[in-house]
Amino acid sequence: MTAEHTLGLTAAAEARLDEYLAQVRRALLGVPDVNSAEIEADIREHVENELRGAARPVELLVLEVVLRRLGPPTQWLPPGRVPVAAQVGATFSTFGQYLKTRFRAARAAVWRGPEDWRLAYLSFGAFAFGVIAFPLFPLFLLVSYILSRAGIATATDRGVTLDGGRKWLLYPPVVLVSLVVATAVVGAPIGIIVATVVETSEVDDYERWVAAGKPMVLSSWGRPTNVRMPDRQVREKFPEVQTRLDRVLAAFPGSPAVQDVLAVGFVAGGVLSAWWGVLGCVCGSFPGLVRGLIFPFHGVFSRRRAGWVGTAALVLLALWGAAAYRLAEAGGLL
């Protein structure tokens, strides 16, 4: 038989007593030096003694009088101890006040503050909204980048040194765009090399297939189908067929596998020489544009260094062109 039934409470009174005991258990949560089970047993015993002469079933109002005399659930804590829930609530309240203060400061800076702070908050707001609404991120990244560059330029014009707070607000979109530009500059020739090698291989496969008489895959009955024979099978069945690429590769030393590697390296050398030659000359001619695109990494760039890189790459390109002319002659392409 449960303690509630021995007390003879109504359903409403039983629910109220359960609620009071649950509040006591929550108050004692995280207090290892207090036995909550013993406290609960003491409370039940006290309530039973108080209701000994009361009429049964005991109504809710009668029980409320007893619980009011007992006091609040937190009174069972040791002196000086604060409930865990109150501690967590105080922590969240303090954090909420901090966020509210920072939001008010940001709003004041946006609407009434100095231009360098206003642009910093607007830039970071556009950047953060782009991260949240990810499909629109490129658009908001562009907006944030323009606002950041405007904020940096404004601070420079006024002779204001950007502190750590404004740098964290202004630099993320600028750094991200600079990295994208640098990656595009470095990765573009790699893409050109890959595309050139793939396209040359496809043209060579087609030329070999035509020179072999356009063979088709045979069916199980030995009759030709409408499926073009793979290049590997064409090479095996028609080893006598020579394409223009075969004649060019023959000018390289080593086995066919080594020749393929050397040919890809030769193509890469030409593409890289042309790319960095043109890029070095352009960067040397327009240093301001380069410094603007790679800010805040503009300190690593110098006009003289770009000129030297461009000149050296063009010299290598001239040597590469002479070697390419000799290879074309050896392959019978000229």
What descriptors fit this protein?
3 domains; 13 helices; 334 residues; mainly alpha
The pLDDT mean sits at 82
Q: What portion of the residues fall into strands of 2 or more residues?
A: under 5%
The total count of strands amounts to 2
> How many structural domains does the protein architecture include?
3
Number of helices: 13
The largest β sheet comes out as:
2 strands, antiparallel
Q: Largest beta sheet: what is the strand line-up?
A: 1-2
Helix-strand category: mainly alpha
Please trace the helix and strand order, writing H or E for each element: HHHHHHHHEEHHHHH
Oligomer: single chain
Low-confidence stretches are 1-5
* Shape verdict: elongated
Distance between the termini: 108 Å
CA radius of gyration: 41 Å
Helical content stands at over 70%
Write a structural description.
The protein has helices spanning about 5, 10-25, 35-50, 60-70, 85-110, 115-130, 135-155, 165-210, 230-235, 245-250, 255-285, 285-295, 305-330; strands spanning about 215-220, 225-230. It folds into three domains: about 5-80, no CATH class; about 85-185, no CATH class; about 240-334, no CATH class. It is elongated, with a radius of gyration of 41 Å. Residues about 1-5 have low confidence and may be disordered. With about 325 residues, the chain is mainly alpha-helical. It has 13 helices and two strands; from the N terminus they run ααααααααββααααα. It starts with a helix and ends with a helix. The protein has a two-stranded antiparallel ribbon. The longest helix has about 50 residues, at about 165-210. Helix content is about 70%, strand content about 0%.
